[in-house]
Amino acid sequence: MSEGFTLFDTAIGTCGVVWNARGLVGVQLPQSEGGDPRTRLARRYPQAVETDPPATVAQAICGMQALLNGEPRDLLEVELDTTGLAAFSARVYEISRAIPPGRTLTYGDIAKRLGDLSLSRAVGQALGANPWPIVVPCHRILAAGGRKGGFSAPGGADTKLRMLEIEGALAPETLPLFGGR
Q: How many CA atoms lie within 13 A of 78 on its CB side?
């Protein structure tokens, strides 16, 4: 088997995870429109077979469940298969993974860390293509001025705000920034 997947329950609904021998290939947040999450996983990862996860993936699932139950987990130990990932996206995801639970950065903050504020839109595009939501915490990235901004995962900005609420972040107007403002 080259890729496996499983579903797991969290405080925000049923999530899915896909893996191979190198690490996690993708994470799926709950579907806002309902339906069987296997259908979306099958579209995104047609080679993946539903099976029990190996120990490392089971540990990653436990970490994601704990985070979504309000435990301050950073999930940095979770191995990701970054094969084929563009260098720019890899750097954006690395910066994003360093944001502690309950804290945030803006797209501009990440662009500045990359050395060029004009990269803010490209940062947003990279995060919009993030295959590992929760593990690469794109929900912790806000628009300028601490506004919630977009969120391409199922449930959109409502899911983003729910995840930030679980992590102990405050209302969008007063969200604590990590290394920002």
A: 30
